[in-house]
Design a protein that fits this description.
heterodimer; A: 420 residues; alpha+beta; 5-stranded mixed β-sheet; 4-stranded antiparallel β-sheet; 9 helices; B: 154 residues; 3-stranded antiparallel β-sheet
């Protein structure tokens, strides 16, 4: 729900009680004011009647007649009382109840004492009050409608900078340079937002670049001393005065250094994929990549007496980066070759929808769910870095593919399945 | 002048941009010196137009353009890997070459250290057989069970 709609709903909800209470208060206020006015008029008339009565009481009363709304009676033996106002509802001619206000007071003249009763029809007041109330409500409603329309129109321009900022955030990619500054706004809140997001994105981008550079530099910095160490060992190996024991020791050291190199390269590759440093730049012919890899691994298969049965559909093109696809398929094929039992078959299949590779071998020495984790390896292969399948999973995830592992005990088949 | 870029950056883009910049070869760290040696020699052969395309070592003669290996008048048919192996050995004579280094040179990262020693051994064995069958004395000596020494025994 839009902020605006929500605001209107709350506004309307709060308007209802305010309107009801306001109307009641207004009704009371106006009717009180009118009553006060009528009472004042009655008081004025009383004053006038009293004056006339005092001047000439004998002639004045008959002069008023029966149909006058002034009723004068002699007080007689009754007790005197102070003037009092009261309202009576009377049935009028048209059978409608009419509100009538009375004023009763005692007047003393030189001859006698009288009770004066003055009446004033208060019929108009109810009508006026209703008219005024209805008018006020109508004006309020009109104001509300005007407010809604005005807010709708204004908000469009008012919220524009906000939507621009959000739109820019949507297209923000950490691996791509930030082209323009975030829009300036005359509204303080949006300017604060714009500034904050600008700072945040710039900072993230800087951190990303630093990470990227670190990954590259670390790779470089680690590989250089490794190269020097390896060259030194290689030179040392050339020495003619070494015992077989020493040569073998040097060999083991070299192998360990190579493993270290592979390990850092694997970790850096994982980091680079995490950082999305491999920009997909189009369709990659994976059939070609797999065929090349099969060619490379052919010697190895022959050596291990593994038969590769493959069914590679030509010209399967997938979106992504060629290097990553090479790593992906190479690691899976290498895995099948290394773990496949001697003299057995490795089956490889590529179609439009999936890539499948299976090899026969003993069950895993660890839990199946750990197979794609980093540094997980079979106990008898301490020389492997344990990153190959982690890379497979990572690359598959990067391209939105499902990578699944399955072991069939009956046929001893390890199978990896990638759905594109 | 020839340029070989030696770098730790091993991604395809880095290599391609290296070649774009005009380098003749690109080798990633870490590498074995014999490999660098083999690459430099190959580069010199390619660069030097006056030099004969023939690479001779002892009785072996290699036409590097057509990749034909001959002993006397006899052509020896080698697989691609065997050819590369021979070039590697000839580029690094009188040098102890361990099996891991050879494996790395031939298969790069496609092969882990495990099992590669046996694998190299079978390749060496086949090459050695092809060469001795052609009448070449055995130039390859096994050293300490972990490597080889290539020398023409004069």
């Amino acid at each position: 729900m839009k902020l605006l709609v929500k605001t209107f709903i709350y506004l309307l909800l709060s308007m209802v009680p305010i309107g009801i209470i306001g109307s009641i208060l207004q009704y009371e206020f106006i009717s009180n004011a009118i009553l006060k006015d009528i009472d004042e008029q009655l008081a004025r008339r009383l004053k006038f009647v009293t004056l006339q009565l005092k001047k000439d009481s004998v002639n004045y009363v008959p002069w008023l007649g029966v149909h006058s709304d002034i009723d004068i009676k002699p007080l007689g033996n009754k007790l005197k009382f102070s003037p009092q106002y009261y309202t009576v509802y009377k049935e009028g001619i048209s059978k409608k109840f009419v509100k009538v206000r009375y004023l009763e007071a005692c007047v003393e003249t030189t001859h006698s004492n009288y009770i004066i009763k003055l009446k004033q029809v208060n019929d108009e007041s109810t009508k006026i009050i209703w008219d005024v109330t209805v008018n006020v409500i109508l004006i309020c409603l009109m104001l509300l409608v005007a407010l809604v329309i005005l807010t709708l129109v204004i908000s469009k321009t008012l919220w524009k900078p906000f939507y621009i900022v959000v739109g820019r955030l949507k297209t923000f990619r950490i691996d791509q340079p930030i082209n323009d500054d975030f829009p300036k706004s005359s509204i303080r809140e949006f300017q604060v937002l714009s500034d904050a997001i600008s700072i945040m994105t710039n900072y993230s981008r800087q951190q990303f670049i630093q990470q990227k550079q670190f990954a590259e530099n670390a790779s470089h910095e680690i590989q250089t001393p490794l190269t020097i160490a390896l060259s030194g060992l290689d030179d040392l190996m050339q020495s003619e005065h070494l015992e077989v024991k020493s040569i073998k020791s040097i060999q083991r050291t070299k192998d360990a250094l190579y493993r270290l190199s592979n390990l850092t390269q694997g970790l850096l590759l994982l980091a680079k994929i995490d950082n999305q440093q491999f920009k997909a730049d189009g369709m990659v012919n994976v059939s070609e990549i797999i065929n090349n890899l099969l060619h490379i691994y052919n010697d190895f298969a022959l050596h291990s007496q593994i038969t590769i049965v493959h069914q590679i559909k030509e010209n399967i093109n997938l979106y992504g980066h060629p290097y990553l696809y090479e790593v992906l398929f190479s690691n899976l094929i290498k895995n099948a070759m290394l773990h496949g039992s001697k003299g057995k078959v490795v089956q490889i299949e590529l179609s439009h929808a999936y890539f499948r590779i299976s090899n026969e071998g003993e069950p895993l020495s660890f839990d199946e769910s750990l197979i794609f984790d980093r540094f997980v390896k079979t106990t008898n292969r301490s020389d492997s870095a344990g990153l190959g399948l982690a890379l497979v999973k990572q690359i598959g995830g990067l391209y939105g593919m499902t990578v699944r592992y399955n072991y069939t005990h009956k046929t001893k088949q390890h199978e990896f399945n990638i759905e594109f | 002048m020839s340029v070989i870029i030696v770098s730790a950056k091993n991604s395809l883009e880095d290599k391609l941009s290296g070649f774009d910049l005009g380098s003749d070869d690109y080798i990633t760290k870490p590498f074995y010196l014999p490999e660098l040696n083999a690459r430099i020699k190959s580069l010199i052969r390619r660069r030097n137009e006056n030099a004969s395309p023939y690479l001779n070592y002892g009785l072996i003669s290699i036409q590097t353009i057509t990749r034909t290996v001959t002993v006397g008048n006899k052509v020896i048919t080698l697989t691609q890997k065997e050819y590369e192996l021979l070039i590697y050995l000839i580029s690094n004579p009188d040098r102890f070459l361990d099996k891991s280094a050879i494996a790395r040179y031939l298969w790069g990262n496609h092969l882990d250290a495990a099992g590669s020693n046996d694998f190299v051994y079978t390749h060496i064995k086949k090459l050695r057989k092809k060469l001795t069958d052609a009448g070449i004395p055995d130039y390859l000596q096994t050293r300490y069970g972990i490597g080889y020494f290539f020398n023409k025994k004069e």
